[in-house]
Design brief:
The complex is a heterodimer of chains A (166) and B (338).
Chain A (H helix, E strand, L loop, with lengths): L16 E4 L11 E2 H6 L6 E7 L2 E16 L4 E7 L1 E9 L14 E2 L6 E10 L2 E5 L4 E17 L4 E2 L2 H4 L3
Parallel strand pairs in A: 3-11
Antiparallel strand pairs in A: 3-4, 4-7, 4-10, 5-9, 5-10, 6-8, 6-10
Chain B lengths: L12 E2 L4 E2 L11 E3 L2 E5 L3 E5 L4 E5 H13 L6 E3 L4 E5 L4 E5 L4 H6 L3 E5 L1 H15 L25 H4 L40 E4 L9 E3 H6 L11 E3 L2 E11 L3 E3 L4 E5 L3 E8 L5 E8 L2 E5 L3 E18 L4 H6 L11
Parallel strand pairs in B: 1-10
Antiparallel strand pairs in B: 2-3, 3-4, 4-5, 5-6, 7-8, 7-15, 8-9, 9-10, 13-14, 14-20, 15-20, 16-19, 16-20, 17-18, 17-20
The chains are: A mainly beta (166), B alpha+beta (338).
The structure holds fe (ii) ion (FE2).
């Protein structure tokens, strides 16, 4: 018997949902679909789809070149659709990195001066480390979807009422 | 006799080692006792006795539950083997309970709880699993991938019982951290993920930055998981842990959350039955397809049903002491409102 593992994409996804059998509300499950959220997003917006106190998972509609970002802690990027390259620079100006107590990443104005650390080429299912203190940029040659493991920060957008079943 | 929910906060912690009987003269299995709990098995059933009541379970289901409890180090919060029997992780101790989170048992006063030092309880459960697991039965495997656990004692499967899950410190594939999975390290592709792309990302680190950049194929990693319903840790960002797992058939426990956790369905489909953590009353049915995201609030228990082997990203918050902040009501059970 041949198997088919079902993955989703912005163009082709099916959504499940919450059926209530007790005394509560569907909204308590904050149920959404990442492809639907990415499909309705602007490129490079970071929309929070999961939140646990200060920790977040954010979905990104990736198209073209992203701005450059930097963060005081590690983050990870999981490619859920498409393909991308992630470029890394160690900034010459150490003041560019936000202070340790800052959470979430900071958007930089343009490509920072510094030493090229390298790059990663990823396709669907690949998980990429975005190491603390390294400036990074995503480049997506096709419509792609990224899940970002990070902390709530200046770039995080919360719009639960728009994305969740209720 | 029975500890009520109110009394449960100040139970004594029992530290005495468990007792094992000689093998049963007919079926060959040992009886295990710890505190006031007694565990026996026959060819079909596990029989659990405590001072207030007897409980019986299908022995395969019992072993599938107990192996997770053992392998997870009692996990977060409640591990309900079914709607009656289970454990609660208090982290410095573990409660073993009968009916303590079932409204009917509580109403009739037949609920019972004892508290144990984690090491002595782990030794009891591990010893039981080693004795009760027959050759050809792997309690971590999906039913279609393993033989029967029923019948009289017939050999053993210590390798399956001793399986260790992989817990990355920072990120899989970094130097010194947990490795990627491959044929070479004994992790072949599972039959249900035969079509999953096996390419690895290209990591190009410039001179001087070797070992600082890292990436790996998470879907390939999961396609090579030899077990079901047993999360690994692949990346940790401060207290945020990605705990992906491959799921097939039924989660053998109703996990009762002591904190919020999140599910991100990466492939295929799982349906969750959700019930009240304290009373076991049904609350909802949550069906998740590829790309769906849902939280599991801190006041529920859940059991998953995965018709085809699927990839689930369980997302946890590892902050120590979080369970107390939810239990006291300081933190709400739902992580965002709108
Ligand atoms: Fe859970």
């Amino acid at each position: 018997m041949s198997v088919t593992t079902v993955f989703g994409s912005i163009d082709k996804f099916e959504k499940g949902g919450v059926e209530i059998t007790g005394n509560e509300e569907a909204r308590d499950y904050l149920f959404s679909n990442m492809y639907e959220v990415a499909g309705n997003a602007q490129p490079w917006e970071r929309i929070v789809i999961a939140k646990n106190l200060e920790n977040t998972v954010e979905v990104i509609r990736a198209e073209g070149d992203s701005p450059w970002y930097i963060c005081s802690h590690d983050e990870t990027a999981l490619l859920m659709q498409g393909s991308m390259e992630v470029r890394f620079i160690q900034p010459a100006d150490s003041g560019l990195a936000p202070p340790e107590e800052n959470e979430g990443s900071v958007k930089l104005t343009g490509e920072p001066e510094g030493e090229v650390m390298g790059h990663v080429k990823a396709t669907r299912g690949h998980l990429v480390l975005l190491p603390a203190g390294a400036a990074y940029q995503f480049r997506a040659g096709e419509l792609s979807v990224i899940l970002l493991q990070t902390l709530l920060g200046d770039e995080s957008i919360e719009k639960w009422a728009e994305i969740c079943q209720h | 006799m029975a500890a009520t929910a109110e009394q449960i906060t100040d139970l004594p912690v029992l530290t005495e080692a468990h007792r094992e009987s000689a093998p049963h003269p007919v079926n060959g299995y040992k009886r295990f006792e710890i505190g006031s709990f007694r565990f026996e098995r026959d060819e079909y059933f596990a029989r659990i006795q405590c001072p207030t009541v007897t409980h019986v379970m299908d022995v395969e289901n019992f072993m599938r539950s107990m192996i997770r409890d053992v392998a997870w180090g009692f996990f977060y919060g409640w591990v309900n083997f079914d709607e009656v029997f289970g454990t609660v992780n208090n982290y410095d101790s573990v409660d073993v309970f009968m009916g303590a989170y079932n409204q009917a048992y509580k109403d009739s006063g037949t609920d019972f709880t004892e508290r144990f030092e984690p090491g002595v309880l782990q030794a009891c459960f591990k010893g039981l699993m080693l004795d009760w697991t027959n050759a050809g039965f792997n309690p971590f495997a999906a039913p279609l991938e393993t033989g029967s656990g029923r019948g009289p004692k017939n050999g053993s499967n210590d390798e399956a019982v001793n399986f260790q899950r992989e817990l990355a410190d920072r990120f899989v594939s970094l130097p010194g951290d947990t490795p990627i999975r491959s044929d070479e390290n004994g992790r072949p592709v599972n039959r249900q993920f035969a079509d999953v792309d096996q390419s690895e990302p290209e990591v190009h680190a410039e001179a001087g930055f070797e070992g600082q950049l890292a990436a790996f194929n998470l879907f390939k990693y999961l396609s090579r998981s030899p077990v079901t319903w047993n999360p690994s840790i692949v990346s940790i960002v401060r207290s945020s842990a990605y705990c992906p797992t491959s799921e097939e058939h039924i989660l053998p426990v109703d996990h009762g959350n002591d904190r919020v956790e999140w599910f991100i369905q990466m492939s295929d489909e799982i349906t969750w039955r959700v019930a009240d953590k304290d009373s076991a009353a049904p609350m909802s049915v949550v069906t998740m397809k590829a790309g769906d995201v849902a939280c599991m609030p801190a006041d529920i228990r859940h059991r998953g049903f995965s018709p085809k082997r699927s990839m689930l990203l369980v997302w946890e918050n590892l902050t120590p002491g979080l369970e107390k902040r939810y239990a006291s009501g300081e933190l709400p059970p739902v992580p965002a409102t709108f």
